[in-house]
Automatic annotation (TrEMBL):
GO terms for cellular component: plasma membrane; side of membrane. Residues 464-499 form the EGF-like domain. It comes from Taeniopygia guttata (Zebra finch). This is Netrin-G1. Residues 420-465 form the Laminin EGF-like domain.
Length: 538
């Protein structure tokens, strides 16, 4: 038993890993919920659909038997071997550990010889039916990923129903009927999973395949998950993408493989004969050595982790979702309706993260500078809208252009951004560096560009080069330099530096009565002047 269990797990693993090797691009792993990527906006999170790994779910199960006193051994009784009514030397005694068969023994590790098993009382009240319900509860939604396998220690029952619940045991639906004669037991035509197709995969069937009585060597009953997967993913489950696509679009199909509870309804023990041997009713009972349920926590594609807390499984939700199945958005993240992640497009799926609520945003998201967020579909990210206090950025974490960061203020301080106050005439633009220094035009200086360098003078439009001064740009012919911006010339002279005779510009010219022109006069300087002025005005 141990070996076969080990082998089947091993086989599953080999199948999965070889699939991964051959179809890396079509096989969605869904094992990461988010990664950091680099965009023009800087580092941002990229969110993906994700799900926990499949595992042995029996470890987390709670079992209930109905009727509660149906386990053998109280009072002690003897039972006979199924195939031989005269071999009645087996004893069940609940008060002796070696002879007791409590329900836990269905879930312990097999491998010991003889195997350990749960056993019911014998059918001593025949013809009153011997009915037993074995209910397995997880108190958590689970998605089955492999066959349910039940191993009977004695013969497989003549009649049995496997039922499931999706609502923690409030309502139950049949999963599969098992009988030696389906028509007689359940008025159903016998079928096997192989008779189904993609279109009838959800049909509830009665199968006679596993109910051939005690004569056969096999003690195992399956509920076939993988055969049903194969209708979509191919016989060797090589095209999981196709299965995931179907699961994504067909809720009924997804729900079919989803459970919170299972119930094994044992309705008639193995008899191996048409007539029950009333002389030897100690031959008839139920005994189960192993139940195997393999699956994953259903986290709606919002978690890769599923942890046990207070004996209960809980998804470790990402994408700002919460709840045992990540089935709703966290408080303050209800900016749009919750929705499960999607397997599509293969292979990363769509995360469908929860986004911050419009009205109730916590201080940390926008540092108190905005009370509104918006979801940017293209980047799959959320940004603060209308940042106040001169902030900007995805989280209002930057200063607007024209402002700089107040080094002595926290990020959530109203005074976090300080106006650059760059002088509009003296600065190249209105931005400053992180110390508040503006970028100045030529001839201008000072942190705010409101001062002039030597040789320049502040006009209404900023610093202009001096027109005259007492060093290089002397006013000529007795003119006086006024505030470095103009020469006040004597009446007979004009020009920027009083370099021209006024009469030269008049219609008649200066005539003969030309003003005295100094021998070394102004002439030599004049050709230089335009170049000099141009250099200053640059
Ligand atoms: C077993 O459960 C079914 C419902 O799933 C119920 O109708 C039936 O009475 C139960 N049988 C016993 C023996 O508790
Ligand atoms: C199922 O889990 C819920 C929430 O943790 C808890 O309140 C409840 O008691 C659990 N039910 C059972 C039957 O354990
Ligand atoms: C909630 O989502 C935002 C982005 O939308 C993310 O930055 C933040 O880390 C998430 N919070 C949690 C607790 O997952
Ligand atoms: C910088 O922030 C501190 C702390 O809020 C504040 O006292 C100070 O006035 C701010 N400086 C300016 C220039 O706004």
């Amino acid at each position: 038993m141990y070996l076969s269990r080990f082998l089947s797990l091993h086989t599953l693993w080999v199948t999965v890993s070889s699939v991964m090797q051959h179809y890396p691009s079509v096989w969605g792993h869904y094992d990461v919920c988010k990664t950091q990527i680099y965009t023009e906006e800087g580092k941002v999170w990229d969110y993906m659909a994700c799900q926990p790994e499949a595992r042995d779910m029996i470890k987390y199960v709670k079992v209930t038997l109905d009727p509660p006193d149906i386990t053998c051994g109280d009072p002690p009784e003897t039972f006979c071997a199924m195939g031989n009514p005269y071999m009645c030397n087996n004893e069940c005694d609940a008060s002796t550990q070696e002879l007791a068969h409590p329900p836990e023994l269905m879930f312990d590790l097999e491998g010991r010889h003889p195997s350990t098993f749960w056993q019911s009382t014998t059918w001593k009240d025949y013809p009153k039916p011997l009915h037993v319900n074995i209910t397995l509860s997880w108190n958590k939604t689970i998605e089955l990923t492999d066959n349910i396998v039940i191993t009977f220690e004695s013969g497989r029952p003549d009649q049995m129903i496997l039922e499931k619940s999706l609502d923690y045991g409030r309502t139950w639906q049949p999963y599969q009927y098992y009988a030696t004669d389906c028509l007689d037991a359940f008025h159903m035509d016998p079928k096997s999973v192989r008779d189904l197709s993609q279109h009838t995969v959800l049909e509830i069937i009665c199968t006679e395949e596993y109910s051939t009585g005690y004569m056969t060597n096999s003690k195992i009953i399956h509920f076939e998950i993988k055969d049903r997967f194969a209708f979509f993913a191919g016989p060797r489950l090589h095209n999981m993408a196709s299965l995931y696509g179907q699961l994504d679009t067909t809720k009924k199909l997804r729900d079919f493989f989803t459970i919170t509870d299972l119930r094994i309804r044992l309705l008639r023990p193995a008899t191996g004969e048409i007539y029950v041997d009333e002389q030897h009713l100690a031959r008839y009972f139920y005994a189960i050595s192993d139940i195997r349920v393999f699956g994953r926590c259903k986290c709606n594609l919002h978690a890769t982790g599923c942890k046990e807390e207070n004996k209960r499984l809980l998804c470790e939700c990402e994408h700002n979702t919460t709840g045992p199945d990540c089935g709703k958005c966290k408080k303050n993240y209800q900016g749009r309706p919750w929705s499960p992640g999607s397997y599509l497009p293969i292979p990363k799926g769509t995360a469908n993260i929860c986004i911050p609520s419009i009205s109730s945003i916590g201080n940390c998201e926008c540092f108190g500078h905005s009370n509104r967020c918006s979801y940017i579909e293209l980047l799959n990210t959320v940004i603060c809208v209308s940042c106040k206090h001169n902030t900007r950025g995805q989280h209002c974490e930057l200063c607007r252009l024209g402002y700089f960061r107040n080094a002595s203020a926290e990020l959530d301080d109203e005074n976090v951004c300080i106006d650059c106050y760059c002088n509009p005439f003296g600065s190249v633009h209105d931005r400053c560096n992180d110390r508040g220094f503006c970028e100045c035009k030529e001839g201008t200086s000072g942190p705010k560009c409101d001062k002039c360098l030597p040789g320049y003078i502040w006009h209404s439009l900023g610093c202009q080069p001096n027109v005259c001064d007492n060093e290089l740009l002397h006013c000529q012919n007795g003119g006086t330099c006024i505030n470095n911006v103009r020469c006040q010339c004597p009446p007979a002279y004009t020009g920027i530096l009083c370099e021209k005779l006024r009469c030269e510009r008049e219609p008649g010219g200066c005539g003969r009565s030309s003003a005295p022109r100094g021998p070394g006069g102004l002439r030599p300087l004049l050709p230089l002047l335009p170049a000099l002025l141009a250099a200053r005005a640059r």
